[in-house]
Amino acid sequence: MILVSSCLAGLKVRYNGSHCLDEKIAKLIDEKKAVAVCPEVLGGLPVPREPAEIIGGDGFDVLDGKARVVTKSGKDVTDHFLKGAFATLEIAKNVKATLVVLKENSPSCGSSKIYNGGFSGEKIAGDGVTSALLKRNGFKVISEEQFMKEISD
Fold it and tell me: What is the dihedral of CA 77, 41, 33, 100, to 10 degrees?
């Protein structure tokens, strides 16, 4: 089973109430080969919600208590991101996920790039909170871009 970010399956769960539909991922959901999750919604955040970025590191640093997830207006939402990450981990275990495809750049789901924490649009190398937790627990986590490359090779 493949675990995928809900926004890639066409669900309107992104911070601004939009989605990032990927037809190939939506087809996997329809064929019952994939299950969709949104860690931020699982963590109790609403749709829409204020944009958030990791301040002081990446998702691994958040897991280690060295960084925080903060909204653009300065509200600390770290606990929501951690709650969602752990809920996603449980789902990944329950469905016996063999691959996890998460939305790149997200403070939850980014698997190789996230925003730099300055709300400037600048990206840095790093993982989101959920991606980091899943990787720590032995799951293969890739971005939708990597997934498209893998299936076209």
Answer: 0
Residue 42 CB-half CA count within 13 A: 20
How far apart are the C-alpha atoms of 95 and 55, rounded to whole Å?
32
Q: What is the pTM for the complete model shown?
A: 0.97
Q: What would the 3-class secondary structure string for 71-120 be? A: ECCCCECHHHHHHHHHHHHHHHHHCCCCEEEECCECCCCCCCEEECCCCC
Q: Distance between CA atoms of 104 and 92, rounded to whole angstroms?
A: 18
38-67 in b/e form (b: 16+ CB < 10 A) is: bbbbbbebeeebeebbbbebbbbbbbeeeb
What is the per-residue pLDDT across 46-65, written as a single tens digit (0 to 9) for each?
999 999 999 999 999 999 99
pLDDT in tens, 102-145: 999 999 999 999 999 999 999 999 999 999 999 999 999 999 99
How many angstroms from the chain centroid is the CA of residue 108? 4
Residue 105, C-beta contacts closer than 8 angstroms, at least 6 positions apart:
113, 114, 115, 123
Using only C-alpha atoms, the chain has a radius of gyration, in whole angstroms, of 14
